UniProtKB/TrEMBL annotation:
<dbReference type="GO" id="GO:0016491">
    <property type="term" value="F:oxidoreductase activity"/>
</dbReference>
<dbReference type="InterPro" id="IPR014027">
    <property type="entry name" value="UDP-Glc/GDP-Man_DH_C"/>
</dbReference>
<dbReference type="InterPro" id="IPR001732">
    <property type="entry name" value="UDP-Glc/GDP-Man_DH_N"/>
</dbReference>
<dbReference type="InterPro" id="IPR014026">
    <property type="entry name" value="UDP-Glc/GDP-Man_DH_dimer"/>
</dbReference>
<comment type="pathway">
    <text>Nucleotide-sugar biosynthesis; UDP-alpha-D-glucuronate biosynthesis; UDP-alpha-D-glucuronate from UDP-alpha-D-glucose: step 1/1.</text>
</comment>
<comment type="similarity">
    <text>Belongs to the UDP-glucose/GDP-mannose dehydrogenase family.</text>
</comment>
<dbReference type="Pfam" id="PF03721">
    <property type="entry name" value="UDPG_MGDP_dh_N"/>
</dbReference>
<dbReference type="Pfam" id="PF03720">
    <property type="entry name" value="UDPG_MGDP_dh_C"/>
</dbReference>
<dbReference type="InterPro" id="IPR036220">
    <property type="entry name" value="UDP-Glc/GDP-Man_DH_C_sf"/>
</dbReference>
<feature type="domain" description="UDP-glucose/GDP-mannose dehydrogenase C-terminal">
    <location>
        <begin position="311"/>
        <end position="414"/>
    </location>
</feature>
<dbReference type="Pfam" id="PF00984">
    <property type="entry name" value="UDPG_MGDP_dh"/>
</dbReference>
<keyword id="KW-0560">Oxidoreductase</keyword>
<dbReference type="InterPro" id="IPR028357">
    <property type="entry name" value="UDPglc_DH_bac"/>
</dbReference>
<protein>
    <recommendedName>
        <fullName>UDP-glucose 6-dehydrogenase</fullName>
        <ecNumber>1.1.1.22</ecNumber>
    </recommendedName>
</protein>
<dbReference type="InterPro" id="IPR008927">
    <property type="entry name" value="6-PGluconate_DH-like_C_sf"/>
</dbReference>
<dbReference type="InterPro" id="IPR017476">
    <property type="entry name" value="UDP-Glc/GDP-Man"/>
</dbReference>
<dbReference type="InterPro" id="IPR036291">
    <property type="entry name" value="NAD(P)-bd_dom_sf"/>
</dbReference>
Amino acid sequence: MNLTVIGTGYVGLVSGVCFSDLGNNVVCVDKDSPKIEMLLRGEVPIYEPGLKELIAKNTAEGRLSFSTDISAPVQDAEIVFIAVGTPQLPNGEANLQYIDQAAREIAVALNGYKIIVTKSTVPVGTNERIKQIIGELTTHPFDVVSVPEFLREGSAIKDTLHPDRVIIGAESKEAAETIAVLHRPLTSKIIVTDIRSAEMIKYASNAFLATKISFINEIANICEKVGADVTLVAKGMGEDRRIGASFLNAGIGYGGSCFPKDTHALIQIAGNVEYDFKLLRSVVEVNQMQRFNVISKLQESLEDLAGKTVGIWGLAFKPNTDDVREAPALEIVPALITHGAKVKVYDPIAMDKFRKEYNHESILWSSNAVAAAAECDALCLLTEWDEFVKTDLQQIEKVMDRPILVDGRNVFSQEQIEKTDFTYYSVGRPMMNRSNAQKPSFLNI
Ligand SMILES: NC(=O)C1=CN([C@@H]2O[C@H](COP(=O)(O)OP(=O)(O)OC[C@H]3O[C@@H](n4cnc5c(N)ncnc54)[C@H](O)[C@@H]3O)[C@@H](O)[C@H]2O)C=CC1
Ligand SMILES: O=C(O)[C@H]1O[C@H](OP(=O)(O)OP(=O)(O)OC[C@H]2O[C@@H](n3ccc(=O)[nH]c3=O)[C@H](O)[C@@H]2O)[C@H](O)[C@@H](O)[C@@H]1O
């Protein structure tokens, strides 16, 4: 099939590339010309494992191209995907200006029947709004279909090629069938719903995952007070198939471009119909507080942070991405500086993106993990990159001024810590070191 994707962010680019790899002809369109120029040179504007190679392959085989012009690609396509951003407005609602603009531009370009698929995450009722905008500007026939996207950054290609399910929200049976045919090579689990339910499935899924994270973080906070180990609690809970093991990793809370904005948007969607989504408001509040547990732990161990040097491992909101949108580091680093600390930071990939968001004379940009720890009074791990997980902690201990380690993602094991003199703080686990080792009660038995 001939497909056009409007917007080459994570979703547009990865889905466009994956659909071309499945044998479709795809044009990825973006109004950001430097981005399109990069893609035309074979460079990739985001860090996503495997994406560069897949772009090179499909471009070379002639199925994938990039353009700043929307008209010709829309006219040549049978299906047009909208994958533009829906960022958060100051009141929490989704900003639909890019959606509206894309809809107007598609309408003007239409030259015959097309299926317009919305992949962007949009509030309930938005696909009807898209239909209305396009309908007012064209006499050509078209259908609007909602196909929300569930990929995760860092594993975006695998998630796209092997999704747990595909949701198709449609009014027209024929359009739903065409979109189902396009997705059948990916999965047999295709669920067709009405458009409003499809829009809600996306928000409800993200809100539920965020709820799991805040729930386990609160359990972790209680574990710290009662001397239990949250990783063992999560393991024990996760074995129950009704609960499931995923998204029960306690830490410094969720970040990224979607959970924070989509939880706020769903609270607003509910508010607009006079429903107070109390549970989700608490999920957001717990997540906000969780980040600052890192600061409390540093204050507990160092007392006054003024004049201290703190090393930071990890700036991206999670590993295997250079995305720093809503990353916990973007709040933790400025908070440390406000408390008078100097901060030495290192991330394998996300340093440049972080620097564009936040820079300060009290930040020292380190070139590797050991350099970021050197001469520090404490070290905080904020992102669980493999590079940090595999580090020799005994070597790190030697280069630091004081052996204090705050592990915001619970990555280090009892065995690793026992070999060191680190004063070790994790999230919801008993403190462990050579002199204060506590054996977990049921792990590895
Ligand atoms: N980032 C992610 O992992 C996921 C994002 N989503 C949703 O997908 C949507 C897109 O997210 P991202 O890919 O992160 O977006 P992004 O904000 O990184 O990129 C959007 C792109 O669309 C372009 N654009 C905007 N208006 C345009 C127009 N009229 N014509 C051509 N290009 C235009 C922008 O220049 C930008 O390059 C959002 O609604 C998001 O919530 C859904 C699942 C996963
Ligand atoms: O709508 C979206 O944009 C996407 O949002 C998330 O994907 P993503 O933000 O890429 O990353 P996740 O792996 O879900 O992690 C989100 C945040 O939660 C945190 N997290 C995740 C899992 C966990 O157990 N604990 C935890 O703190 C991560 O560190 C990260 O900061 C969803 O997982 C995707 O299904 C969805 O498509």
